[in-house]
Amino acid sequence: TNQWFLPAVRGDIPPGCAAHGFVCDGTRILVFGGMVEYGRYSNDLYELQASRWLWKKVKPQAPSNGSPPCPRLGHSFSLYGNKCYLFGGLANESEDSNNNVPRYLNDFYELELQHGSGVVGWSIPVTKGILPSPRESHTAIVYCRKDVGSPKMYIFGGMCGCRLNDLWELDIETMTWSRPETKGTVPLPRSLHTANVIGNKMYVFGGWVPQSAGGEISAPDGEWKCTGSFSYLNLDTTEWIGLISDCQEDKSNLLPGPRAGHCAVAVGTRLYIWSGRDGYRKAWNNQVCCKDLWYLDTERPLAPSQVQLIRATTNSFQLKWDEVPTVEGYLLQLHADSPVPPVAGIPGTHETSVLSSQGGCSLHQSPQSLPSVSYPEMKVDHPSQTNNLIPNNVQVALSSSSKVEGKEKVTAPENKATQETMKNHADATGFKESNAPSLLPVCTSSAQTSANVGELHDLDKQSVNPDASVSCTVSSSQTMVTQQAVKTESSSTNGAVVKDETSLTTFNSKSEAAETAYVMPSSRVSTGQTNDSHSSRAPQRPPAPVKTRDRRWYDVGIFKNNSAVVSQFYLLPEETLNINSKTEGADVPDYRLLKKQDLFPGTVYRFRVAAINGCGVGPFSKISEFKTCIPGFPGAPSTVKITKSVDCIHLSWEPPASPSGNILEYSAYLAIRSTQLQENPSQLVFMRIYCGLKTSCIVTAAQLSNAHVDYTSRPAIVFRISAKNERGYGPATQVRWLQDMKTSGSK
């Protein structure tokens, strides 16, 4: 929600302090030291359990080979694994707090933590190599390279009477100090800056720097100023890359202003910068306290999970996918098995636009103001602006893809993740996206909504109330779920797995969230979505055939949240379609110039989704397939309940909300273990455990002992329930009955 709130904390609430050490370990926060008042420093350690907002003062054991850390401020306090590493800081040599005699420190301590809550004690590691010089207001981060499992702590800058810009490395496994050689332009000497690790880069922002242009002031009384300069160190190559120089002008206020003593935190691949103060040494009493919050997108977002089906009708889909943290929206695309012709008479255009708020303000920094080196783009916004839904006229490039030919037998879609990334675009203000990070002030945004789906937990009685599934079509001898072919028993085979009668498709998603899936009757399945309300009329099929090579992915729209109802998609002009057949990811015209195509009944659609942040569009998800319904089939059963007994469970459900005729029977299926699952874990095999007119059945312990426990997200046993009328079986409701690790391990 991007809203601040003041929690009601309790317990051993610590006194207010400045320049303390602070680490976050899961849901607990540890705070050490700091200045309680002028000249009086602390060496107390406090723990906050953020899940309960409970403070507790903890008392670590003293080290066996020395004294515990003395009271200090401006130290670094870094977490790696179950240990915190304390280095340096500033102490007061005088016992009288009014008589401040500063002493810079370079001592090094290790604090072992207990799991969840509490600490063990301090220790003083025996280190090799030359210790870094004493300092305070420096930064320390810990980085472990993926292909080399030795974690290293990096200390940069600080203050020891003069400001520093030296870099030190500590190998935590061998406890060896060294000074790595670096390439590139080293940032100016500084203190009270921030350093954060995202990926293999250490991002350094702000701080106090010497006021002289050369940055060579070493006298204790030298003048200094705050800076808004921004750089990163590639920790694999030890090369410095400058992003924003100290002398760079920002007349449009598109970048965070100069500041020191601010705080910064990395959330995923996004860096948040909050507050700080701005000013000069000569104007100490006239410093400005910043109250703005900014964020920097450092790279394109990861691919979302596969699109998942919530409900299907004859001409629409209700879809969802798992959220991707810290993104601005999602691009949804579809690919139709049926030929979709290009639209004649619409001029092709290569003009493009970029994401912006509906308030009309550009979110991006002009590229001319950035250095010419290769780095992620900076993107900026202001806290006073509101970050509204992404408008439908935002454009991204379409990429071509060959059509997958349909087969008579139901088959699983490809599991390969799409690695394509969308091209960058320019908006009406003239900005053009690049691969650079994107920096924005954080604004309040509207709350997100999620689809009405659920998982059944392992409790005595539980229920799921999915949306009523609208009837969908299928051939008289087949029923479909959602993405992969699985076989279920025929009513005439008494439980044997057969090839002919009923073919079901299952979700094939790495992150199958708590949800109820609906089985789609058909030989294939696919999903789609649009921002517009879907039409109630059945669209006419276009008469003109289209060659396979001309079929492309079509934009459904750009969505703020991770769910959508799809009834239409945008058609490409013929000129653009021809361009796309030659060039992967070519630009597309403004959505406002494109015509829309309604979804057809009984048609297979493939779907993929990509997340969008300030750096652009990330890679697409794996492809999902769903089929629109054919009128006349029953909807999916709803309100599934599971009641657990000693030796069995009771499964019950409500009739379909849209029965479409008399219900002749219901079928319930259980995912079972099989050798086929060992070869292809994503392809579930189902056994029919019930067929009859009742809306309930008993699942025996013997049947449950043969159940497959699905680990695509949390461990769960999977059931499917579908209804049959005169025309055949309609879509099925899929329910994941959550199991605890102890229960699932025993099955």
Automatic annotation (TrEMBL):
InterPro entries under this entry? FN3_dom, FN3_sf, HCF1/2, Ig-like_fold, Kelch-typ_b-propeller, Kelch_HCF
Organism domain of life: Eukaryota
Q: Where is this region: Disordered?
A: 515-547
GO MF terms here are: transcription coactivator activity
Main localization of the protein?
A: nucleus
Q: Which gene encodes it?
A: Hcfc2
Keyword entries, A-Z = Kelch repeat, Nucleus, Phosphoprotein, Repeat
Got a GO cellular component term for this one? histone methyltransferase complex
The annotated regions of Polar residues compositional bias extend over: 523-538
| Location in the cell | Nucleus
What are the coiled-coil residue ranges?
A: none
An example GO BP is:
chromatin remodeling
UniProt protein name? HCFC2 factor
Tell me which residues make up the Fibronectin type-III domain: 542-631
Question: One Pfam family, short name please?
Answer: Kelch_HCF
